[in-house]
C-alpha cells in the first residue's frame, strides 16, 4: 500500500524580498513561527491583509523563505468572498491570474497577478517516487479516509531531491472529505 501524509493548506502568501521590504520595511527579515513539512520552508510569524473587490481578509500567513515572485494561494470559497476568480494552478504558474492588494504594517502592494487556487499535489522525495514508480508531473488518484471518504483525481506528483513526502490539499478539499493535517491518504494509481 502506498500511503502519504495529508497536509491541509490554509490561505497563505509567498513574498519576494522587494515586497517584504515594502510591506514591513527595508531590510526586514521574516521570523519563523513553525517549520513546514517541506525542508527549508516555514510559516512566518508575520501576517498581512489581502483586499479584493468584495472583501478583505486579515491575518493571512506568510510562508518563507522569500520567493522570486509573489503568489497568493486561496481556496475557491476565499475567492468567492474576495470577489476574484483565480484559476486552479500549480505553484509558480501565475501568468494571467488575478491580483489583489496586500497590506502590511508599513506599506502596501497592488498585485497585477499572482492569485491562484493551488492544484492538489503530492511532494515526493526522489527515493519515494523511485520506490513506487512515480514520475514527476504524473497525475494520480488518491483516496482519503476522513469522515466523508473520497477519491481525489488528477493529483499532481511533484518529484525532487528537495522534497519530503506530503500531500497538499486546500481547506475546501479537506473540509469536503473531513480530513485534517496529519491524516493518511492512499495512492490508488
Task: Name the poorly predicted regions.
Answer: none
User: Element order, helices and strands?
Assistant: EEHEEEEHEEEEEHEEEHE
Kindly state the mean pLDDT as a whole number? Answer: 97
Instruction: Please state the structural category.
Output: alpha/beta
Rg, Cα atoms, Å: 17 Å
Number of helices: 4
- How many E strands? 15
Helix fraction?
10-25%
Q: Give the overall shape, derived from the CA principal axes.
A: globular
Report strand %: 35-45%
Largest sheet at a glance? 9 strands, mixed
Family: Belongs to the PduL family.
Function: Involved in 1,2-propanediol (1,2-PD) degradation by catalyzing the conversion of propanoyl-CoA to propanoyl-phosphate.
Pathway: Polyol metabolism; 1,2-propanediol degradation
Organism: Paenibacillus violae
Describe what you observe in this structure.
It is a single chain. This protein has 189 residues and is α/β, with parallel strands linked by helices. The protein is 15% helix and 42% strand. The protein is built from 4 helices and 15 strands. The chain has helices at residues 17-24, 76-82, 126-132, 171-177; strands at residues 2-9, 12-14, 32-35, 42-51, 56-64, 71-73, 88-89, 101-103, 108-110, 115-118, 121-125, 139-144, 150-160, 166-170, 184-187. The strands form 2 sheets. Strands 2, 3, 4, 5, 6, 7, 8, 9 and 10 form a 9-stranded mixed beta sheet that branches. Strand 4 (42-51) and strand 5 form a beta hairpin. The longest helix has 8 residues, at 17-24. The radius of gyration is 17 Å and the shape is globular.
Amino acid at each position: 500500500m502506498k500511503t502519504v501524509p495529508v497536509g491541509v493548506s490554509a490561505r497563505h502568501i509567498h513574498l519576494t524580498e522587494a515586497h517584504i521590504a515594502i510591506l514591513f520595511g527595508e531590510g526586514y527579515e521574516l521570523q519563523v513561527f513553525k517549520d513546514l513539512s517541506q525542508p527549508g520552508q516555514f510559516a512566518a510569524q508575520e501576517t498581512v491583509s489581502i483586499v479584493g473587490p468584495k472583501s478583505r481578509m486579515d491575518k493571512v500567513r506568510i510562508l518563507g523563505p522569500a520567493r522570486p515572485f509573489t503568489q497568493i494561494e486561496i481556496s475557491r470559497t476565499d475567492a468567492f468572498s474576495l470577489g476574484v476568480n483565480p484559476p486552479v494552478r500549480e505553484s509558480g504558474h501565475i501568468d494571467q491570474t488575478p491580483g489583489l492588494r496586500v497590506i502590511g504594517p508599513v506599506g502596501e502592494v497592488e498585485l497585477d497577478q499572482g492569485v491562484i487556487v493551488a492544484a492538489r499535489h503530492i511532494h515526493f522525495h526522489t527515493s519515494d517516487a523511485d520506490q513506487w514508480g512515480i514520475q514527476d508531473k504524473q497525475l494520480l488518484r488518491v483516496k482519503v479516509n476522513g469522515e466523508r471518504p473520497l477519491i481525489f483525481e488528477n493529483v499532481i506528483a511533484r518529484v525532487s531531491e528537495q522534497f519530503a513526502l506530503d500531500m497538499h490539499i486546500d481547506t475546501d478539499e479537506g473540509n469536503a472529505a473531513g480530513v485534517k493535517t496529519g491524516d493518511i491518504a492512499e495512492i490508488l494509481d
